[in-house]
C-alpha cells in the first residue's frame, strides 16, 4: 500500500530555543552535488541579466515595449499564453521528477532552498558554527552583537543584489545601476527595490523552512504523486532500530547511535527517523551527516539513503512503471505542444481599428472616406519596412503611409483613410494587406457608407 506523507505540524528542531534552531553545515557527496547544481544556477541568475547578443538582451520582459526577449526569440505580449504553456510544461517535468525521485527539485534547485543555504553560509561565516550560534543565541556581548550586525548587513546586501537583479529582467539593468549610482532612481523604483529586498531578506534569512512547510503548494502535491516506488531520502529503520547511544549499545542494538547529527544538519528541522514527512525537501544533508558518522564507526554507509518504500522492505522498485510512464507521456506532450507553439510565433503583429467617432466623412457629393488607426509591430530583426495596401479593391483608395519603417514607428498607432466614389453597398468588407520581406499578412475591416 502506498504510504502517504504525514504532515507534521510541529517538528521538533535541534537546539530548540523558542522554536528557533541553528542548522549545522555538513560536507559530503550530496553537498558537493548540490554545489554542482546551485552555483551554476546562481551564476545564471546574476549573470544572464547582463548578457546581450547583437545589442539585444538575452532574457528580458519589457513592459514598455510589450515584448519578451527569450534566448534569441522575440515574443510579443500576445505570446504570453506561450509562456504560461512553458510553465505548465515545466510543472509536468517537475511532477515526473517527483514521481521518480521525490522532492529533489526542492533540495537541489529551488530558489528558496538555494537562497536559504546562501544565507546560512553567511550566518556561519559571521557568527560561527551551529553549536556556537546556539550557545550565544540571545547574548548581548558586544563582540556577538558586532558579528550579528555583520550577518544582517551581509544578508541585506545579498537581498538588495537579488532584488536589483530580479528587477533587471523587467527594467534595463544598466539603467537601474546608472540611476542608482547617481542617486536618481525614481520613488517607484526605490519602493519596489525595498519591497523586493525585504521579501528576500525575510524569506531566506528569517522565515526559511517555514515557506517550505506552510507556503509551498508543492509539498502538498507530493503526497499525491509519491508511490511505494518513489525514491526519497529515507531512514532504514530495520537496520537502525533499536537505536542506542554508542556507549550503551549491545548486540541487539541497531546501527543508529542516536547521535542526532541527521537532525542537526536538517534545514527544515525535522528528524528523518520519524519517517517520510512533508517537511523533508530531499536535500540529502542528513545522508551526508549520517554517512560521516557511519564512516567513523566503520559501519556501512546508507543507514539514511535515497530509497523507496519497497526497497526499505527488501523488495525492488522497477525503473519504469505505469504512473511514471503516464506522467512521462503528459510531460512529453506538454513540451511538444509548447515547442510547436514557439515555431508558430508571428514575426509581424498588426492591428486595425475603425475610428468610432464618425462612421464616414463625405468629402464631396460622390466621395466618402472612412478613418482607421493601424499599429504594426515587428518581432524580428530582419523586418524593417512594412508595405501597407488594400486587397484587390481597385475602386478604393488608401491614404496614409504606405511604407512603415518599424525602426521609427513600431508600437505607435498610425492614421489611415480609405476613400471611395461608390456608395453601394452599405458596409463592404475589405482587407488591409501588410507585406514585409515578401510575406503578406491581411487584416479584415469594413468600409461603411450609405446609399445615395
Ligand atoms: S530530513 Fe534530510 S533530506 Fe529531508 S530536509 Fe532534512 S536533511 Fe534534508
Ligand atoms: S546521523 Fe545516523 S546514527 Fe546519527 S542519529 Fe541520525 S540516523 Fe542515527
What does this entry look like structurally?
- It is elongated, with a radius of gyration of 31 Å.
- The model is unreliable at 1-17 (pLDDT under 50).
- 27% of the residues are buried.
- It has helices at 29-48, 80-101, 104-108, 111-127, 130-135, 142-167, 173-181, 187-207, 209-215, 218-225, 237-240, 261-264, 285-297, 309-312, 322-343, 406-409, and strands at residues 52-53, 56-57, 59-62, 67-70, 73-76, 232-235, 304-307, 348-354, 361-364, 367-378, 385-390, 396-399, 403-405, 414-420, 428-436, 439-447.
- With 452 residues, it is an alpha+beta fold.
- The protein folds into two domains: 1-345, no CATH class; 348-447, Sandwich (Immunoglobulin-like), CATH 2.60.40.
- Helices cover 42% and strands 19% of the residues.
- The strands form five sheets. Strands 8, 9, 10, 12 and 14 form a five-stranded antiparallel beta sheet that branches. Strands 13-11-15-16 form a four-stranded antiparallel beta sheet. Strands 3-4-5 form a three-stranded antiparallel beta sheet, with no helix packed on it.
- Helix 2 (80-101) runs antiparallel to helix 15, helix 4 (111-127) crosses helix 8 and helix 6 (142-167) packs across helix 8.
- Bound molecules: iron/sulfur cluster (2 copies).
- One iron/sulfur cluster (SF4) binds at residues 235, 240, 256-262, 273, 289-290, 293, 303-304.
